Amino acid sequence: MSSNTEDNENFGLGAVFQEPEGFLPPPKPPTFAEHRMLSGETLSIRLVGDHPLYGYLLWNAGRIVSDYLETHAESWIQGKTMFELGAGAGLPSLVCAIKGAKTVVVTDYPDLDLIANLRYNATACEELIRASPFVSVFFARRGISMGR
């Protein structure tokens, strides 16, 4: 194709809509938040640096649910299978694993950064999780996208 033909197809705009190098800010690095469990352990939770789905926040709702689950661990968690949807950093799932759930399935949007961050947090808490006589730790291969 000739340059003249390309200009005609682009209405003579050429590269007007291309972002110049350095135009977008660099990705933000991950941050960490601490959560003190009622039993005294402190969990250091890594949060993704920036994400349009808010995976970079540790919500108070996650902290409150985690405290509630820990309070009722004997009847609600120990020996049971737990499933968390839209986990973000996965705090409630980590608490369930530490407090003796038989299996914990933690999920989020199938985004590589979010899934890698969940894996990081589970690995960082692995010593506390393995101290529980009820649980074994394994990872699914990747997130699953459902729908069209």
Quick synopsis:
The protein has 148 residues and is α+β, with helices and mostly antiparallel strands. The protein contains six helices and four strands.
Q: If you had to describe this structure to a student in words, what would you say it looks like?
A:
The protein is of the alpha+beta class and 148 residues long. The protein has a domain at 29-130: Rossmann fold (3-Layer(aba) Sandwich). It is built from six helices and four strands, in the order αββααβαβαα. The chain is elongated and about 70 Å long. The chain starts with a helix and ends in an 18-residue tail after the last helix.
Instruction: Determine the CATH superfamily of the domain at 29-130.
Output: Vaccinia Virus protein VP39
**What is the helix fraction of residues, given as a range?**
25-40%
Structural class: alpha+beta
The main β sheet shows up as:
2 strands, antiparallel
Average predicted local confidence, pLDDT: 82
Task: Return Rg in Å.
Answer: 22 Å
| Run of helices and strands | HEEHHEHEHH
Low-confidence stretches: 143-148
CATH class of the domain at 29-130: Alpha Beta
GO molecular function, one term: S-adenosylmethionine-dependent methyltransferase activity
Protein name: Nicotinamide N-methyltransferase
GO cellular component, one term: cytoplasm
Organism: Coccidioides immitis RMSCC 3703
Give the arrangement of secondary structure elements.
Elements: H1 3-9, E1 31-36, E2 42-47, H2 60-71, H3 73-76, E3 81-84, H4 91-98, E4 103-106, H5 112-124, H6 126-130
Parallel strand pairs: 3-4
Antiparallel strand pairs: 1-2
Helix pairs in contact: 2-4
